[in-house]
Design brief:
With 63 residues, the protein is mainly α. 86% of the residues lie in helices and 0% in strands.
């Protein structure tokens, strides 16, 4: 027994492909956000590692 006899198989296939494309786009956007946050945290770590020794030297030189 076919429960989908009233539906056009072509339309079902097109809708499934449309949903698949939407899901892929959302997953891609999520990966971009994750990559951006990881890159930002790496940038912060780099900035801290490169500037903290300079600040320490300046503070020691002033005292």
């Amino acid at each position: 027994m076919n429960h989908y006899s009233g539906f056009d198989p072509y339309l079902i296939k097109e809708r499934n492909e449309e949903i698949r494309r939407e899901v892929q786009a959302l997953r891609f956007e999520e990966r971009l956000r994750e990559d951006h946050s990881q890159a930002l945290s790496r940038l912060v770590v780099f900035a801290l590692r490169s500037t903290l020794p300079l600040f320490r030297r300046v503070r020691l030189a002033v005292q």
